[in-house]
Structure formats: structure tokens, C-alpha cells
Amino acid sequence: MFRRATRTLLAIVMVMSGMLLGVGATSGTAHADSCYTWNRTLSQGSSGSDVTQLQIRVAGWVTSGERLSYDGSYGARTTAAVKKFQAAYGLTADGVAGPATFSKIYALQDADCTPIHFSYAELNKCNSDWSGGAVPAATAKANALKTMWKLEALRHALGDVPITVSSGFRSYSCNSAVGGSATSRHLYGDAADLVGSPSFCTLARQSRVHGFSEILGPGYPGHNDHTHVAFRPSQFWSAPTCGM
Ligand SMILES: [Zn+2]
User: Is 223 a catalytic residue?
Assistant: First the structure.
């Protein structure tokens, strides 16, 4: 009798701890939605600021030379980018952003909305407040966030290899101190000088399919010791040593 009661009690405790573990596992993956939470499934035809938030996170999953617009309008190009993102992370590639897609994004981002392998501190070694560049501080910081999500895609596509940003945002004074061009995209916050385990040519070539319209690598003056990626209105890629 006593034994049976103990067994029953044990069984109850085990079920309860299993439930607790289940809850813990769920909140463990969901806590990174603290910077932004999607409240509905998004698909082609959707529009709104939640679409823009999605576009920021999938803009690194495009075709060669393509740049996804952050226009809050879920069109064919957003669908294609979501499909590429889903395929890259082993999800069903249906182009519809639902719970599985958002759950993966939450797992990939920190509480400040930066992707887990990059940070605002890494993208700004110049000053603490993003001031003094070619655009307002908030714009420079927002540009850096967009660049980081493209870098996260690049990093994953290369097999999750470590990539380090040696220089990101620069104020005019930081830029002239390192001899940067007077029109450098570093002044806008969207440029990143990449070093790390992939070769500079691998970084330059692979960057073409991750939404970077400016790529400068080996063979381009001043770029033999890193690969520079950035956004610019019209495409400019040059890395002659890499055949680009
Ligand atoms: Zn650069």
C-alpha cells in the first residue's frame, strides 16, 4: 500500500518535472523575442511594420546582386527571401512566415535585436553614440543592424564560420584618423570590414548573394588585408585578385 502510494507520488513528481522541463525549454527559445514579437503569420500580400521587421532579418537571403527593400510590403521578393532563409535553417521552405520561422529568428537574435554572432559594439568601435557620421546617429545604428543580419546570413551560408568585423561605423573624425575615403560608407554605419577564418576572396565572392551592393576586396586599392561590404544605392563590386 505504502509502496504503491510512493510509486504514484513518484510518477506524479516525474510528470510534473517533465512539464516544468517542457515549459523551461519553451521559454528558453522564446525569450529572445524581447526586442520584437510577431503576432500574426505573414505571407505574400501582407503589409505593415511587422513585415519590415521580417525583411530586416531575411534581407541576407537573396540572389546575386539583389537587394531586398525594407518597404513593409510582402511581395514576391520577400517570399523568395523567406524561402531561402527557411531552407538554410532546415525549415519547410514555403515562403510563409509563421511560428516556425519566427521561432528560428528568435533563436538567432539577442535581446537588442542584433543577430547572435554580431553586436553593436563590434560594428562601432568609434564612439558610444553613433554620432558624427554622414547620417543621424539613429540612422547609422539602424543601418548597422541591417548589415549585421546580412552578415549573419553570410556566416551561416559559409558553414557557420567565425567572421570578425575589424571596422564598422566611423564618425568623420574616426574615418579620417584611419585614412578612410571622404565618401566612405563607414560614415553611414552600413559598412563592415571583414576578417576571420574564410579567405578574403571567399568573403568577397559569397557576399554577392547576401544583399551587399558594395564589395571591395583583394586587388582593390587598400583592401588586401580585409574584405569590405556595405550598402550603396548603385552596385559596385571590385576584388580583382578574386576575379571580381
Ligand atoms: Zn571598409
Answer: yes
